[in-house]
Amino acid sequence: MNEHLSALTNEDLLTCIVGRQAAQSVCIAYPNLTLIAQASPGALLALNGMGGSRTKAVHAALELAARLSREALGEYPLLDTPDRAADLLREEARTSVTENFKVLLLNTRRRLIKICEIATGTLDTILVHPREVFRPALEHNAAALILTHNHPSGDSTPSESDIKVTRDLIRAGQLMKIEVLDHVIVGRATTERPKDYCSLRELGYFYS
Asked: Distance between CA atoms of 51 and 32, rounded to whole angstroms?
């Protein structure tokens, strides 16, 4: 059964959920799953053949997929590499149309304690203050943290602002004895950029 489903197109699979007419409308308006996931309930509701129950069914299916991804990682995943951090963030980041800055709080063994959302910005701008970043780390007795945010444009290349904020937060962490392990920016993979994320540590910004 699973092999049969894997051979179906996105439209075919959506047809199983909302019917052929609605599935065609959705796939014409939003050619890939990322765009469908980013569409607001109101935008889906306005499409031909869609209604309240079908719109809810689509979002329910997407939420189940996201939960499956998180479940596969476990309740307290080991986050000792940037790709593991990206795995944790990818599903939610791909549906966001604004930048969201989060910190991953870790214990001494580099296992996740908690994900804390620090700030939400616009399409390409976000403001972060060290006080807001380290407050939850102190509250949860975190030994280290990973800075993370998404680039809705899909290009995960760090901006000058990203680099400056990272260096400021590294220095703040040193003062409070909380290690900033990395800053992972999640975007989308392309032919030119096979990774859908970048690590500022891997790029050398964590070294003086």
From this structure: 20
Calculate the alpha carbon distances from 137 to 15, 102, 143 in Å: 45, 12, 8
Amino acid letter at 47? L
Task: Tell me the residue range of the domain where 10 lies.
Answer: 2-71
* Full strand arrangement of the beta sheet holding 144-150: 112-120, 100-106, 144-150, 179-186, 197-199
pLDDT in tens, 141-184: 999 999 999 998 899 999 999 999 999 999 999 999 999 999 99
In a 13 Å sphere around the CA of 73, the CA atoms on its Cβ side amount to: 20
Q: What's the whole-model pTM score? A: 0.71
How many domains does the chain contain in total? 2
Same domain for 90 and 67? no
Q: Supply 5's token pair.
A: 């489903």
pLDDT digits (tens, 9 = 90+) for 6-42: 888 988 888 989 999 989 999 999 888 878 887 888 8
Q: Give me the helix-helix angle, 52-73 and 10-18, nearest 10°.
A: 120
